[in-house]
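Cross-check.
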Amino acid sequence: MFRNWGFLLGEIWVLLLLAALVGLLAGWLIWGRRETNIQVDHSAADEAVRLRASLGDCEKARGTAAERIAGMEADLAKAKADLSASAAKLGQTEADLAACNARLASPVAAPATAPVPLLSPVAASKPASLEAARGGKPDDLKLIKGVGPVLEELCHKLGYFHFDQIAAWTASEIAWVDENLEGFKGRVTRDKWVTQARDLAAGKAPRPGGEH
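Predicted model, tokenized:
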């Protein structure tokens, strides 16, 4: 009888051991799946956070793009307004140019007042001349500023040897001598010969530049 009890006790221990092993296996399977589910849940939560952040960045970029588009539209409207104003100014300028061309093409009206008559030139007349110097002694005409040996010789050929001759020349006579001084035209007037000759004829030194 005692031997049957030992067999039963052995079977009970075996069964208990098997039950413990089964329980450990079941617990390991349950807890492993739970940890896996927890990890999956954490990964899904992280992905959701990342997607929300990406969505926020996209919305921010869309707002910035909308602001830039609005700014570009405002610049375009301003450019169109400036272009219209420039076109209007160009049209006005073309109209002014056409009016100016029309005025230029129209005949010029005659002046209301009669033109001022030009002054008639002084009539030239030859001054009195001599065949030779009085007493054979001509004055030193080179004392007149602007008269050199060549010009003195030319005056002698024209019959003028003395200061008093030159001092007596009138405006018309000065004009004649100016025209007949070959190679020295205009020197009588330019160097004021008559004024200098008057001083020299009176025994005075000629004033600088023939001043009056």
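The CA atoms of residues 77 and 153 lie 90 Å apart. Residues 1-109 form one domain. Passed to J.P. for a second look.
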